[in-house]
Amino acid sequence: MYKAVFIDIDGTLRDNNKNISDKTIETIKKVTNKGILVVLCSGRPRKYTENISRKCHASKYIITSNGGNIYNYEDNKIMYVNVMNKKACEKLYKIAKEADVRFIMNVGDNRVVSKVKNFDGSEEQLKTDIKTFVDTHDVVQCTIADTNFEKIKNLKNSIENIEDVEIKNQHKSLTNKNAPKEGTIYYDVANTESCKGNAIEKMCQMLDINLEDTVAIGDDYNDVSMFKVVGHSVAMQNATDNVKEYADEITTSNEENGVATFLEKLLV
Predict the structure, then answer these.
(1) Is the distance from CB of 147 to CB of 169 less than 8 angstroms?
(2) Considering the domain 4-81+194-267 in this protein, what is its CATH number?
(3) Under 8 Å CB-to-CB from 198, ≥6 apart: which residues?
(4) CATH class of the structural domain 86-191
(5) Each residue's pLDDT tens digit, 47-86
(6) How far is 82 from 63, CA to CA, in rounded Å?
(7) Is the CA virtual torsion 102, 196, 62, 11 positive or negative?
(8) Out of 85-99, 119-133, 206-220, which region has the weakest mean confidence (pLDDT)?
């Protein structure tokens, strides 16, 4: 029997309107009650991911910032953190500032941003110069974002030229010409060795779980590292073709309760 299931959030757990169906929530409850850990793995910051984990009754463990942080929110315990190179953060900030786009840093529970967009308390305005901030705070991931596709697309080479960091995830339109160029176009950037797959390995080692006894479910480029380390990998039907190539199995789409469709198999 599998001991842990690692699930991506956007495009996987949630539908295109960012909702989690009642069926999915009930199925996660049943899987959890069977003694299987359900762990959400996201590029989102800690508090955001925790709220979703609580909502769907997953485990107390979460992997956030594309693998940069492992957190036990019931015990308020940081189990692992991969702090970004400070000089790299400064260079990324300069790129974003010169292009007049949003610069976002995952710090602690939430995000510190150059331009506040969400007024729900999940974002805090950067109030000092960038060097002072990164010297006094642990940044786990940076995101460069804007609604202008061409603006963000044109920054890729500059980002890739920065040492010790790499693009961990990006809007699907930046890698798939058929994907709609709408909404927030972005690049998530973190340390080179930081990824969901490495975080899963570290977490399983801490909890004495054999990787062969784990499953990962995802839909995007940043989920491939999960697929490479777990015992069984599941791609959503809405995943891109190159992501599906790494999966052992394809479930239905995020609009068709794909997560619940797979999890139900674990209840037989």
Answers:
(1) no
(2) 3.40.50.1000
(3) 67, 225, 229
(4) alpha beta
(5) 999 999 999 999 999 999 999 999 999 999 999 999 999 9
(6) 12
(7) positive
(8) 119-133
